[in-house]
Amino acid sequence: MANPVRELRSFVAAALVAPVPRDHTEPDALFRRRRWVALVTLVVGSLVLGATLRIPPGDQLFYVGGLALAAVWAAGGLASGQLHLGWAHTRDADFARPIVQPVALAVLAIAIFLAGAAVVGQVPWLAGPIDDVLDHVRYGSLAIVWAITVVNGIAEELYFRGALFAAVGRTHPIAVTTVIYALATLATGNLMLAFAALLLGLITGAQRRVTGGVLAPIITHVLWSSAMLLLLPAILDLVR
What we know:
About 75% of the residues lie in helices and about 0% in strands. It contains 9 helices and 2 strands; from the N terminus they run αααββαααααα.
């Protein structure tokens, strides 16, 4: 019978610690260009994000802002230079596209965040900022908001764990991109959203470092954000 502790340690090492071998070195000129594109995209994206989440719930301009934001992140990510899907470790010491590991990490992250929400929901001054975001679902179209959430999750990873991660280079890319991701989110004025970005950024940043690509971060991000959108309102209503 497999030892569950050993299995968990092996999973964490494979998914978040031990990088797969690769060489993504690029010429200095392309690296400098990537940095300039990443910088301009960050400034524009932060401004659009702040403006979008300040649109009153129920206003259809929110949909326009959400799509515009996704366009900024995706365009910046793709224009910065080559991005990679990445590879993951397998049990037979081979490599495959990262699918199972990011799904498992997403389930774990969802469970942790929902458990935290059950506590936060009982503290009005903490729950208030979360409600401000979820009001876009309560007073708008769930299907449209979910679609925009998915598109933005993909676009954010193309930029933050794709273009920006590569632009940072080899000096603490997880820490740097995570802090920048949280600060960009802080442009919304929502501290709880920035805190969530900080935790999510650490997970997806570690995935990016291990796999060398954006596929694993995209899968985890999309599953996590979808669950927060669909399940979080029910959890908050349950504990209040």
